[in-house]
Amino acid sequence: MLEELFILPEEIYAPQLTPAQFLRHTAAFYPRFSVTDFYSNLKILDVDPQAVMSRMSFGQQKKSMIAFGLATNTSLVVLDEPTNGLDIPSKVQFRKLIAAGLNEDRCVVISTHQVRDLDSLIDTILVLDDHRIVVNHSVDELTEKLLRSGNYSKMDLELFFNTVTSDGGQLLALLEKGGGHE
Q1: Pairing state of beta strands 132-138 and 124-129?
Q2: Residue 17 burial (CB count, 10 A)
């Protein structure tokens, strides 16, 4: 099971290894690991494969681990706050890498408070509040339920989250009834 799972926690451990050395020590745990993808990801994210990870900035460390994680080709990738520490150009490259790596055989779960960094990648929203799942719907389903007109509009995910977690359940009740269509 573990060879099908890659988890990148928010707080990462950066070893006293270069990304190239980390690859040699760790890639064997992932049977579908792609060395080509790893070096391509490093290049896209502008990470020196010969720099010692523990001496890199937090953002560079995070990018090294993202490059590695996406190259594992596991069926499940869990990323906790992956854009924390990344500058704006790196966030753009991160979104491109994630989008390019998605397919029917891979599920990427992103836990984040920085939804604006990732809203173009999100297809399903799961909201936890007080240790309970209060929303688990596709973005399309939520948009359809919440729009009063037939016009498509991009949903503000931060506003949606804040409303769901602070309105005493009124929005949740509306979702249960089928939305705002009249």
Answers
A1: antiparallel
A2: 16
pLDDT (tens digit per residue) in 45-83 = 999 999 999 999 999 999 999 999 999 999 999 999 999
Distances, alpha carbon 176 to alpha carbons 87, 114, 126, 131, 136, in Å:
39, 27, 15, 20, 12
- What percentage of the chain carries pLDDT values higher than 70? 91
pLDDT in tens, 132-152: 888 888 888 887 777 665 556
Q: What angle do CA 161, 112, 33 make, to 5 degrees?
A: 145
Q: Which domain range does residue 53 map to?
A: 2-114
Query: 108 with 23, same domain?
Result: yes
Same domain, 137 and 101: no
Collapsing DSSP to helix, strand or coil, 103 comes out as: coil
